[in-house]
Amino acid sequence: AKKSAAATPQNVTSVSTPTTRGRDTIAGSPTSPQGGTTLRSKVQEKIRLVAEDGAAGTGANAKRPAQQRRALTFRDEVTDAIKSATDEVGQFIPLTPLTLVYGVTAIWLVIRLTIYAMLITPGALRYVYAYFFDSRIIHRVRYGPNRRNYLDIYMPPESAAAQQRGAKKLPVVVGVMGGAWVMGHRSWNTQFGMRLLDAGVILVAVDYRNYPIGQVPEMVEDIGRALAWVRANITTFGGDPNNTVLHAQSAGAHLSALLMLEHGLMEAQGEADPRKVCSFSGLKGCVLVSGPYDLEAMQPHLVARGLNATMLNSLSVDGDLAACSPQLLLDSDEWREVGELVAANLPPIHIFHGTSDQAVPSWSSVRFAKKLQDAGFANVTVDIRQGCTHTLPIIEGPLRGMHDMQVELVLPFLLGAEGAKERLAALPRRPRLLPEFLVRLAEYVMPY
How far apart are CA 173 and CA 285, in angstroms? Predict the structure, then answer.
């Protein structure tokens, strides 16, 4: 069943979904009835900040690729990773103990995740080595002023010629990883980036502030800054800013969807200038993988798994989960006023999910896609894969040497349907990196 998960995508129009309490509308105003600042106004404030800083703050950070390569050593990367981890753990120490914040079950999930990591390590070492020592990866390019505002750029051999004046630029993918909002890192895009190198596509792998360093508004701000940086600077590295796709997974998909809808809404209302920041209308497509788009509806699912559902509240401002749920934004009074204009200006959206996802149920994507279609989005595809888990497209699939689900999702936007087929057929075959019995054992203990 696992191997068959990569079968031809299906457009699913109905799926069993849980019953949730009524949430017909979100207040049209971004301020609460008590006059306090809500999460929505905080998110909008951060998007405005990106727009104000965008034009002046992006270009100065772009060095020539050769300079970027010389600027980093293996020791620098490891030292920075240790320092960042130490700082983040230090911020967690004053907080309520893990057993109270996430529930006792979370401890068992962490143990399972640790066992899972140990089982896949022999196969993953190939990517660990590549991340630190492959000369085609430019590390730690700063895109903004905040902590963890770094990105890595995966440069295929063709990028050297593409950097010349007048040369044809290469297609670009911006990768925003997941990590439950607390443990993501840009290096998690390594296997995806290595495969895109084979396809002649540049990958920009983005970091953003995790909790507790930042909450949802800060995370949205960081992704917005990264997209603005790519728009302003990727031609320096041989990339085409007009042939760019956003690929976001899990928590990254949630944050990217929220940024896309809020920014589109602000553009339509004249509150965000697309000339100063990367407008989503300039993207060829947006691929959202296994994301939670309604955090209120996710709470019962977390409770059913034995987790403390209030963990989500700490990510938001004043526990306002509705305001950080992109699906519920489509119910707002503001959206009813200008939603059709927003929908017309946003790129095609491909929403991917697996039926065996234990972390985020597939109904999350089905319901979000249906809501987008009802809101006037004409070009939305919901792609539900039977037997696919939360991690199969990004971990177990590549370890098995299966064909490339992530690459298959982005190439049609960049190269067209026929061009994508030709490019996929020309890719070198993936080697199997782990025996099947180890992969199956890892899947069995994996909590997601």
Answer: 10
Sign for the pseudo-dihedral over CA of 226, 230, 236, 238: positive
CA distances, 257 to each of 58, 326, 350, 431 (Å):
22, 6, 11, 34
Is residue 262 classed as helix, strand or coil in its secondary structure? Answer: helix
CA-to-CA distance for 387 and 306, rounded, in angstroms?
A: 23
Q: Among 187, 250, 279, 332, which one carries the catalytic annotation?
A: 250
Query: Please, which pLDDT band fits residue 354 given cuts at 50, 70 and 90?
Result: very high
Question: pTM for the whole thing?
Answer: 0.84
Active site residue 325: no
Please indicate whether residue 327 or residue 53 has the higher confidence score (pLDDT).
327
357 counts as catalytic: yes
Report how far residue 24's alpha carbon sits from residue 168's, in angstroms, rounded to the nearest whole number: 49
Separation CA 433–CA 402 (nearest Å): 10
Q: Where are the alpha helices (DSSP H) in 134-240?
A: 159-162, 190-198, 216-233
Residue 73 gets which letter from DSSP?
Answer: -
Cα-based distances in Å from 306 to 103, 224, 302, 445: 7, 34, 6, 16
What integer pLDDT is reported at residue 332 of this predicted model?
Answer: 86
pLDDT tens by residue, 154-206: 999 999 999 998 889 999 999 999 988 888 889 999 999 999 999 999 999 99
- Residue 65's pLDDT band, with cuts at 50, 70 and 90, is low
* Amino acid identity for residue 109 in this structure: L
14 belongs to the catalytic site: no
pLDDT higher than threshold 60 for residue 32: no
End-to-end CA distance of the chain: 17
Average pLDDT over residues 92-101: 47
Give pLDDT, residue 246. Answer: 97
Active-site residue among 152, 294, 357, 383? 357
Set 247, 353, 390, 404: catalytic member:
390
- Residue 150, by phi and psi: left (phi above 0), alpha (psi -120 to 50) or beta? beta
Contact 47, 273 (CB under 8 A): no
